[in-house]
PIGG transferase (Sclerurus mexicanus), 703 residues
Amino acid sequence: GMVSNWTKIPPPLFHKVVIVLIDALRDDFVFGSKGKQFMPYTTQVVEKGTSHSFVAEAKPPTVTMPRIKALMTGSIPGFIDIVVNLNSPALLDDNLIWQAKTAGKRIIFYGDDTWVKLFPKHFVEYDGTTSFFVSDFTEVDDNVTRHLDRVLKREDWDLLILHYLGLDHIGHMTGPNSPLVGPKLREMDNILKKIHISLLSKEEASLPNLLVVCGDHGMSETGSHGGSSEGEVHTPLLFISSAFEKRSGSPTKPERVQQTDLASTLAVGLGLPISRNSVGNLILPVVGGKTIREQLRYVHLNGFQLSRLLQENTPAYEKDPGYEHFKIAEKSHGNWIKLYLEGNNSEILLNLGKKLLKQYLEALKTLSSSLSKQVAQYDMYSMMVGTVIILEVLLLLLLSVPKALSKRAEFEVPLSPPLFSLLFYLMCLMLCAVHVIVCTSAESLCYFCSMSWLTAVGVMMLISALMCGVLSAIAKIFENSQLPLKNSVVSSSSWSEIDVLILAGTIGHVLSLGASSFIEEEHQTWYFLINTLCLVLCQELCRNNFLIKECDPHHSANVKQNSDSIMETSECKNIDIPAADSSKLGKATSSSEFIKGSEKWISLATPWIILICCRLLRSLNQTGVQWAHRPDFGHWLTSSDHKPELSFLAAFSLLMIFFLVQRRCSLVSKIAMALGLLGVYSYRAAVGNVIFPWQHGGKDISK
C-alpha cells in the first residue's frame, strides 16, 4: 500500500561523509571569542559559507563512550555506561556504523580506540589511539592527522571518522582557559580547512560531499567532564556541504538540537535506515534544499520509526499525544499526495505542504520527548528494596566492627533471637501487605513484582530478619554501655588509633571515588593509605617494644635478678610459676629473651616488607593515567592464551586463604568459608576469567 512505499529507504543525499569529532569541544570554542580568534576558517564557513550550525545538547553522563553511543544509535545511554567507559564492550544495539557496513559502505576510522572496541570488524581501515594518557597533547592527535593526506587522495571509502583527543587532554591537565587551548584550536581549524578543501575539489556532479564537525561532550570550568553543567553538555554541531545555500546577512545564534538527532540525520543523508532504538529527530535544515515532497517523505520516515518504537515500549501507545499527532499528520500527508499526483502545483499546495511539515515536526518532537522520558524512568520499587537490604547489611556490619577489631576478633550477628520475636512476624506481614498494594497498583512493569510470590515472601522475611538483627544489636550496645566497669582497665572492644585510621581511610577512599571524570588518579588514595597504615603500624610496634611498661621485668645479667624479674612479671599477670633450678632458669630466660628479641625485630621489619611488596604489586599491575598503557604481568595473565596459568594462580591463592584462616575456625565456619571460596572461583569461571580442570579449549561454563 501507500504506507509501505513511504517507508522505503530513499537514495543517499551525499557521496562521501567525513565526521570530525573533537573530544571536549565546547560550543563557545567555536561560536565564542575563542572561535573567532583561533578558528578563523571555521568561523568564516559558519558565518558566510555553505553550512548549518547548531548547539547540540548532550545528556549526562558526559563521558566519551556513552556519548559515542548516543551519536551513532540516537538512543540515550544510562549511568551504568560510566563504569563501562573504562573498558568498552562491543555495541550490540542497532547503530549507524552497522547499517552503513551492511549497506556496503566502506568506513575508515582514526582516533580514540573506544570506537574500535564499540565497533569491532566494522572498519576497512583503522588506527586507534589511547584515551587515558592525558599528559599527551600532541602525539595523540598527530597519529590521526598523519593519515589524512593519503586517505583524502583515495576514492576507496564512503565514510571517514576522525576522533581527536588532544583538546580533552589539555582540559584535564590545565583547564579550558589554558594558553594551550588556543594553539590546539588553531591546529583543529587547519585540519578542518584541509578536509573541506579536499572534499570540494573531489565532488561529483551527481552528489555533493558532507563534512560534519562535532564534540562528544564539553568541559567544565575546571577542565573535567561527566556532569551536567552548561559547559559539559553543550557542544557545537556543524554540517558543511556545497549542497547548502550560502549564508548571507548578519550571523544568527545557532539553533539548539539534541545530540541524538545526529544519528537520524546522517542515516537519511547516507540513504540508510534510521536506527531502531533512536529517539532523535531529523534536523530539517540539512534536507531543506530538497522539494517539499521529499522533505515530507524524510520526516514521515522519522515519525514512522519513532511511532514503531513507542508501540514496542508502551502498552497504551494509542493515547500518547505524539502518536495521535503523527497519525493526523500522516492522514493529511496522504490527502496532500493525492492532490500532488493530480498535478496540482499551485501556491496553495505548497503552503499546505509547509503547514503539514510543521505538523510532522511537532509530532516528532512530542514522540521524542515521550520516548526520552521512558528511558529516564527507573524501577524505583525494586531499587528501593535492594537499597534497604544493602543498608541493613551495612549497618549490621558497622555495629559489629568494634568486636571484630578487638583482640578476641569476635564477629557476632544476632539473628537467631529476632527470628522468633513478635516484631519479626509483624514486620513480615506489613511488608507483604505493602508489596501486594504496590504490585497491584503499579502502572509500569516492575522486576520485583514479576517474581514469584514465594520469592517475594522470602525477600520480605530477609528484610525483616535483618531489621530485627539491627535493632537487637543496637539494644545490646545500649545494654552494655549501662553496665559499670569492674576495673579501670579499658575495655577490650575500645577502638585503637589504628582502628580509627582504617575506618577513616576507608570512608575517605570511598568519597574520593565520587569524581566526575573517572579517568583521573583516584586509586592513588588507596596507595597513600596503605603506606600510611604501614608507617603507623611501625610506630605502634616501636612504641610497644621499646617503651618501658610498668609491669615489665627489669632484666639484668645475673640469674637471681632474672628469677626475681620473672616472679615480678608473674605477680603482675597473676600467673603461678613453679620453682626451678637457677641454672635451668637462666638458660630458659636467655632463650626466651632471644626468641622475644627475634620476634621483636621480625615484627618491626614486617611493615617495611609490606611496603616493598606493595611497590612490587603496583609494578605487576600497572594502573592510572601515566602507566596503564604499559605491559605488565597482569595483562599477560588476563590474556586469553594464559587462562590455565591464571586459573592455577587463583585456585592456589584461594586454597592458601583457606589454610591460613581455617585453623581458628569452627567446623561450621570452615565449611561456610570453603563454600564461599568455591563460589568465588565458580563465579570467575562463569564469567570466563578462569577455567575448571575438566574444561577444554577455554570454553566458558553456562551462566
The CA atoms of residues 12 and 132 lie 37 Å apart. The first strand starts at residue 17 and ends at 22.
